[in-house]
Amino acid sequence: MKANFMGPYIESECIKDKMTTRRVFRFRLYPSLEQEKRIFHIIETCRRLWNDALSHRRNRWEKEKSSTSYNMQQWILTGERKRDPELCELYSQVAQDVLHRLDNAFKSFFDHISKHPRFKPFRQDGSFTYPQAYNGSVYLDGGQIHFSKVGDVPIVIHRQAPVDGKLKICTVRREACGEWYAILVYETDELLPAQKEIFESPIGIDVGLKSIITTSDGQKIEPPEFLRKAEKRLRRLQRSLSRKQKGSRNREKARHLVAVQHAKVARQRSNFNHVLSARIVRAHDLVIMEDLRIKNMVRNRHLAKSIHDAAWYQLRAFIDYKEKRGGGLMHPVEPAYGTQACNACGARNHILLSQRTFKCDSCNHEQDRDVNAANNYLQKGLKELGQDMPEVTPVEIQPPFPVITPGASRAHETGTVRGGYASSEAHRL
Ligand SMILES: [Zn+2]
Fold it and tell me: Ligand 1 centroid vs 104 CA: distance in angstroms?
């Protein structure tokens, strides 16, 4: 999983009969020029190692028809490290992790999950991982984080990491816009509360382009103006980039502008999704959403669409982990006939894409198209969970949905609570 602009992500898992919870944090790094060079060099060496290991596997297969195991490559690596000064500069487990990643890439290729692993060309963004960060290769020390073979890099800890947590994995990542991040995975013994048996305030959600979400109780959330503007600017910059000549200085400048704007949109989007998901989860212990994977089997190459896809996945992931934190549940349902079925009588109608209002031919039920869909998901989800719709919806927390200013994320980062709903909301998340 690419932990891109994710908040603290929680996941419980069972390791040898012992339940542990994993939490992921993403902190900004401010390496010096000297350190930046060194980290860049590590990323480049890892890329070369990936390409070498990949061609080694390919050659063995093409010439000798024999497959290559992780252990074999790992054994070769140990020898190579003695001869190659650049490989020797890599922390040993960082190098092993590259071979692990390659091995996993091949495994999912053989399992028909993904395509054949490819050679990596030079890129502006990249990362490498310390797989056992607790063994002293990585540790926090005041305002700095120590990376083995790199040194002490200034870090901004904008959020409290678990005190009793064990630092498991650390990934150092450079974004295309030039920002550096450390992604830290902690493991703690704290248990997530058990899932509720009966949910008191379920809600159905339909996702869309014009309204980001529509809920079964009739609320529509439009994308905020600042986000629409930022996305519009991103599209304009992207068009400008595609017109620039390959390899020219102007193209490089345009690429940087696109990368910076991309990062900005992603941050604003993530902040908005955090506030929105927190609001939903606080009012509803069961959230039923359409399963986006199925929805997205119909691929659309349009850029705007792909941005929205990513945003929906993120919102869903945020709702999911926030529900788990309180014993609630995010339940995905298959979206089949979501828009076509009538939520009053169940009859299937033919509703055109352009039709904004749903009108049932059998029972004359009339409703907003998306609200009808959200109600269908709600009914379907409750049925799958074997639960009835509670008679009364107990909490009606419905002030207009969050008005988030772009500045709110900043307040969030520095930990100061500013006046206004949005920033204090963000602070409590
Ligand atoms: Zn009907």
Answer: 50
